[in-house]
Specification:
Length: 485
């Protein structure tokens, strides 16, 4: 065991046993949900709490006669990328399904509002049979400008996949989001729930029947921003698994069993995020196999166990790294998306283990459900400030948090403070300024520190300073759980 790895185990264990100041998980939960209001596109409602944001992109889709107004900007830019947006909604819905009862009525309602803002848009993006709108906005034009969403004058071109130019990953992820969300709304809005589920079935059928990657059909526009690196097979199985959970229809279980062989689990069993669904599929399916005919526990439970063993710092088969301060690290930018998503899976799987009265063996290491919860909590606490920098990586939480996040709307003066338009070039002055952002994007979790636990707080360092909808989505569930445990 390397020195750093050994230190990591000690630090993670120390953090997990409560030797750090406890956090106000309820306050962090409130803020993590509020963040989505800062990412809204379209006509803002009277209940809008992040008031420096105003209406934007009110004519999206109008040039082609389709209403594509609404939805979310994915991160610090002003493009609507449907693939990561749909994944964010799937994870918000999963957070509510697992931990909604721990949120409290007001935060549960806010979560439903955040989900519906996304699902209303996904219904629009799939409203024309045979087409799925995968993106709105020219990403190159947008990324070359530093503009408030309220001022945008870059092209708002809509891009769609179709029967001739398929995009199974984006379509199947939408199906997953709509199916998961249909369950969230079932207790309170049966009509809306039924509408979401009907569309989920239709979009999944489209994704499956016209198979292909949107890299091939929309590559020049979706890449390099949200290329699909893992293929679309994982999204098809992920979508089917969510439809199985929502409908209990044997068709979807048979689909999962027939197609699981198409997944390469040899190296991807530990991957989970907007692009790669493998670990999520195994954790979700391990919950669904009981009561299915035929009852087939493999390969789901074996691979879910292997995933756990790949994350626990003391495991002989650990494949992630840990910073000296105990943060889970995987290669690639925006690392906290991995820390939140993988911690969420640990928490969900720990509940399955508890119900089955089961432990996991990683070589000579035995992990009980409480250990998975410990590791998940160590990541949550690290993000909220129990780290060597003594800073929270959630904007507006704690005394010390990122001030210069890579986010156009947050870094430019709001319309209420500066009513004149700020054009593409003029915005660059604010981008390169050393001043803190004038507008607080409350609840935004940034990409996070590097592997040495350091954080530069630089707007230009987008890999570390940019917030995204898919960092926050699993974090909502984690915070809901720890708020009441």
């Amino acid at each position: 065991m390397s020195l750093i790895h050994g230190l990591s185990v000690l630090v993670v264990a120390a953090m997990a046993t409560g030797s750090v100041a406890s956090h106000n998980y309820g306050d962090a939960l409130t803020k993590s949900i509020m963040f989505y209001e800062g990412q809204r596109s379209g006509k803002l409602p009277p209940t809008q709490r992040i008031t420096w944001r105003k209406d934007s992109a009110l004519r999206d889709g109008f040039e082609i006669g389709v209403d594509l107004v609404g939805g979310y900007y994915d991160a610090g830019d002003n493009v609507k990328f449907t693939f990561p947006m749909a994944f964010s909604m799937t994870m918000l819905a999963w957070s509510v399904l697992e931990f909604g009862q721990s949120m409290g009525s007001s935060e549960l309602q806010r979560s439903l509002d955040a989900i519906q803002w996304g699902t209303d848009y996904l219904l629009k993006a799939t409203s024309i049979p045979g087409f799925v709108f995968a993106q709105v906005g020219d990403p190159y034009g947008d990324h070359n400008c530093w503009e408030r969403p309220e001022d945008m004058d870059t092209p708002r071109t809509p891009y769609a996949v179709s029967k001739q130019f398929p995009g199974s990953e984006v379509s199947a992820e939408i199906a997953a989001a709509l199916a998961a969300s249909s369950m969230v709304f079932r207790p309170t809005n049966r009509g809306y729930s039924a509408r979401l589920l009907k569309r989920a079935r239709m979009v999944f059928e489209f994704a499956d029947k016209y198979r292909g990657s949107y890299n091939d059909s929309l590559g020049p526009w979706v890449c390099p921003f949200y290329c699909d690196f893992s293929g679309y097979q994982d999204e098809l199985i992920w979508g089917a698994a969510w439809l199985l959970r929502a409908t209990k229809a044997p068709f979807y279980w048979n689909y999962v069993l027939a197609n699981i062989k198409n997944l390469d689990n040899s190296s991807s069993f530990s991957e989970f995020g907007w692009d790669t669904k493998h670990a999520g599929i195994n954790v979700l399916a391990s919950r669904l196999i009981k009561g299915q005919t035929p009852y087939v526990p493999e390969p789901f439970i074996t691979n879910a166990d292997k995933f756990v063993c790949s994350v626990l710092p003391e495991s002989p088969t650990v494949s992630v790294s840990y910073s000296p301060g105990g943060l889970l690290i995987k290669p690639g930018g925006s690392n906290l998306q991995r820390a939140t998503a993988l911690s969420f899976l640990l928490l969900v799987y720990s509940r399955s283990m508890s119900r089955d009265n089961r432990v996991i063996r990683c070589g000579n290491v035995v992990a009980n459900p409480a250990r998975l919860v410990q590791v998940a909590r160590s990541q949550v606490d690290y993000i909220l400030g129990s780290n060597p920098m003594k800073m929270s990586y959630m904007v507006g939480y704690g005394d010390k948090f990122p001030q210069k996040i890579h986010h156009r709307g947050s870094s430019l003066p709001s319309v209420s403070q500066h009513s004149q338009r700020i054009d593409c070039v003029s915005g660059g002055t604010y981008f390169s300024s050393n001043n803190p952002n004038p507008n607080l994007l409350t609840g935004a979790v940034v990409g996070g520190p590097d592997i040495k636990d350091s954080y530069a707080d630089s707007r230009a360092d987008f890999a570390h300073s940019e917030p995204t909808t898919y960092i926050n989505a699993p974090f909502v569930g984690l915070l809901a759980y720890f708020k009441s445990h």
